[in-house]
Every structure is written in structure tokens, then in C-alpha cells.
Amino acid sequence: MSEESKKWYRMTRPLFNSGYEDDEFWAFGRDGFQEQLDTAIGSDVLIYDKRIYVEPQKVRVIIQQKTSDVYNSTVNRQILSNIGILKCGQYVKYDGGIWMVSSFPDNNRIYEKAVLWKCKHSIHFISPLTGKIVEYPVFSENSTQYGTGEAEKTNINVGEDQHLIYIPYNEETIMLDDRFRFLMDKNLGHPTAYRITRVDPVSYAVGDEFWNDGLIQWAVLEDQFNTASDNAELMVADYYPKDDSGSEETPGSDVGMVIRDTDGDFKLAIGETKKIQVQFTDTWGRHLQPLSYRLEYDFGDAAVVESDQDGVIVIRASESAEYVGRYIEMRVVSDEYGCEATIKILIVNW
């Protein structure tokens, strides 16, 4: 036997394959998938690149896992497409609904695959980039766990539902930080507001090589709808200009007066109390005693002065929600020192 024949004899040959599978794979694999897309199991969808107010791309895909007996699975789908189409954070409009690409897409060299989450709500807010109202569908999960959904205040109970909200990462959404408020409810007459308590842009990122893709996770806490600042018709929180509450002082020739809200927010919730502190200082900044002043105010039925002692004024707001959004104003005047100060406080419902 020749040396060449011995080398051929010692070659490892396929036991079950013909040896031409790789050629067939590249020749027919993707074409075969395209044939499947063109059949009745394929669907036409619109894909938006991380915001629904951009021009979408019409794509043929296959949507899987459409039926389930468990609720959590009914809001999840798998999507198959040609390679190079999908990105984490995209929106997919399918069968009239909006879905979000929630996973990092990958492929088997024939087709691309990713997981979709059903966007249950849309939130609207004023863009920090353009100043225009924008809309973002979001995926939400209630994380209240075993709470009652209410927190007891002094005179009222307020909601304390907690949610996890998922929104696509982009240069607009990353600017929404702690304390940002938005409305999310099916009750459009008096919707519920939520406030971001934690922003996590890391856990649902997909790596530095795909820096512009991924999701942001918000932990949000139920807030109260504020008729003075929120717009239920547009479903935009903090839509109206900031209030003009605060304090102003007019000093005398030798003595100045400072009137201070001890909470520092110049807001008074219905049914609750607030302390206002009055201080006099001389030209060297020393506090003067005793205090001599008089009060001028007309709260109507919106609030009452419960007490005024040693420079501490206690105001209680009415328990009626009809006064929410109204300002109350108090003027403190010292005839002895020739100075005065004014404080304006907004009645709110939280």
C-alpha cells in the first residue's frame, strides 16, 4: 500500500453525515428561513428604534409562544427575524399592540432571535431635550409584594404602590432621574402619579460593544395626582409651570425679619399642619428677643392659624380637596422695627 493510500485510510470520516452539510447550510439555510417567513406563519411588523415617534421599519418576522395558561407568559413572546434586524430596546408593533425587545438578540447563522415584553401602558412627559411632549410605551411589574397599598398620614391615607418600570435606553430617557414624576393609570379622569426612587441603567444593559442599546429599570413609588401641576387631559405630570410659593422679606433700617417654612417646601397637604418660624436679627446678625409682630392673612376656609407662640406659627389646612391648588398668603409686620415679611404656601393633596 502506498504512503498516500495509508494517509487516506487513516483519515477520520463522518459516521452519519455526508460531509457536505456545511455547503448545504450556507446554500439553503437562510433561503429556507426566508421561505418560512413568506408563509402564513410569518407576520408583518413595524420596528421602531427605541422611540415610537421615529419612522418605523416594516419587517417580516415569526412570532412564537402565542398561547399560554399563565399570565406572566402571556405578556412574553419570542421573535425570529433575518439576521441584523433586532436590537435590545426596540419597539415592535405587532397585531395592534406595542412590544419591547427585552433581551440581547443573537443568531444561529440562519435567523435572529430575541424576547419581547408586552408594553402595558404608555407614559407621557415633557422631553428634557426638546421641551415637547413625548410618549414611551413601558413594561411594568407591580413590586408592592405584601403591602396594603396605603400609607397612613396624620389625617389621610395615601397610596404606596411600588412598581418596576422598564423603558428603552437612549439619550432622552437617561436624563430622567430620581424624583421624576409621571402619570400611569386607566382612570383618565383622576389618574395616579408615580415618582422614580431609583434608576438602574446597568442591570439591563447589553455590554459596551452595544452601548446605545438596552433597557433602563426604574423603581417607582405611587405619588398623588396634583391638580395644580399635573394635566390629566394630556396625561403629563408637572405640566404646568412651577408655583410661585416662597417668602419675601422687607428689612427695616436696623432690624431684619426672616420668615421660614420649617419643612422647606412651601406646600401644605390637606388636613395637615405646617410650622412657620419668624426671626428678627440686628445688623450684626444676632437674634432679637422678645418678638413683636402682627399677622395679616385671609385664608377663607382653606386653612386656619392654630397657634402663634414664641415666633412659631402653626397653620392647619382644611380637609376638603376643593382647596387643592390654591395658594394661601400670610404677612408678618413689625411696627416696632419697621420691617415685614410675606410667605405664600400651596395647598396640595399629598
Mind explaining what this structure looks like?
The chain has helices spanning 3-9, 21-37, 71-74, and strands at residues 43-48, 57-64, 76-81, 91-94, 97-101, 106-107, 112-118, 121-126, 133-142, 150-152, 157-159, 162-168, 181-183, 193-200, 215-223, 246-250, 256-261, 267-269, 273-281, 294-297, 303-309, 312-317, 327-334, 339-348. The protein is elongated, with a radius of gyration of 32 Å. The longest helix has 17 residues, at 21-37. With 350 residues, the chain is mainly β. 8% of the residues lie in helices and 41% in strands. The protein folds into three domains: 3-117, Thrombin, subunit H (Beta Barrel); 121-223; 247-348, Sandwich (Immunoglobulin-like). Strand 23 and strand 24 form a beta hairpin.
Write a compact overview of the structure shown:
This protein is mostly beta strands. The chain contains three helices and 24 strands. It folds into three domains: 3-117, Beta Barrel (Thrombin, subunit H); 121-223; 247-348, Sandwich (Immunoglobulin-like).
What's the CATH class label of the largest domain?
Mainly Beta
Q: How many strands, what sense, and barrel or not for the largest sheet? A: 6 strands, antiparallel, barrel
What general outline do the C-alpha atoms trace? elongated
Low-pLDDT windows of residues:
146-151, 153-158
> Can you tell me the number of structural domains?
3
What is the tally of helical segments? 3
Give the averaged pLDDT, no decimals: 85
In which order are the strands of the major sheet placed?
Answer: 1-2-3-7-5-4
Q: How would you spell out the order of helices and strands?
A: HHEEHEEEEEEEEEEEEEEEEEEEEEE
Report the C-alpha radius of gyration, rounded: 32 Å
Strand content: 35-45%
Residues in helix, %: under 10%
- Total strands: 24
CATH level-3 fold name of the largest domain: Thrombin, subunit H
Any idea what the CATH architecture of the largest domain is?
Beta Barrel
Structural class designation: mainly beta
Give the N-terminus to C-terminus distance in angstroms. Answer: 96 Å
